[in-house]
Amino acid sequence: MKVLFLQDVRPTARAGDIKEVKNGFARNYLIPQKLAVLATSHEIARAEKLRKEAEARQKAEAAEWRQIVEELKSDPIKLIVRTGPTGRLYGSVTAAMIATEIQTAAGREVDRRSIRIPAPIRTLGKYPIPVQFADEVETTLDILVEPDEDSVARIEQARQARAEEAAADPTFEEALEQESEDEAEEAKPEEAAESAEAETEEETAQ
Predict the structure, then answer these.
(1) Exposed/middle/buried for 51, CB within 10 Å: 0-12, 13-18, 19+?
(2) For the chain, how many structural domains are there in total?
(3) Is the pTM of this model over 0.70?
């Protein structure tokens, strides 16, 4: 079904666009919500005016987002997550999670579909994430994935346990030194026996 979009429906279309969409999408959502109308000759005549208005809004929107993006890039976007004792996340960071944090920092709605995660994020750290805020306004934001308080405690406990285990286990050099000491201790009775035997033989010879 061909429809004329009356409002922006990102990322599908902008106001003034004429596009072919699925019948169900048009009848059940776009038309009832007054987001679009059937692309009749009369409605198509309105398209040019709507398109010009949409272009003006796009330019204003892009200018606003450029200013917001400059502010967002000054510091990483922090994402607090729950992890296991090794710092590995339970699951992975999603675009929706990042969108929520960016939205909080920007004070404006951010579409999760505009966020592209290059590879699954399953560990703590800083990650560069491309985000498209508006037409011709795309940037890469640093997302800093940090553990929550409970996770910090779990990671520290695991670290201490590893340190204690390492302290309890001898190093390779220490093991060699201990082995040499044990061999020396085992050799002492044999040396004493040999010495006693030698003294006995000397007395007998006299």
Answers:
(1) middle
(2) 2
(3) no
Q: Which of 42-51, 119-128, 178-187 has the lowest mean pLDDT?
A: 178-187
Structural domain for 137, as ranges = 77-152
Name the domain boundary from 124, 152, 180: 152
Q: Quick check: is 43 in a domain?
A: yes
Per the listing, tokens 């976007």 go with: 77
Residues 70-107: tens digit of each pLDDT: 999 889 999 999 999 988 998 899 999 999 999 999 88
Asked if residue 171 is part of any domain, the answer here is: no
Q: Would you say residue 168 lies in a domain? A: no
82 and 45: one domain?
A: no
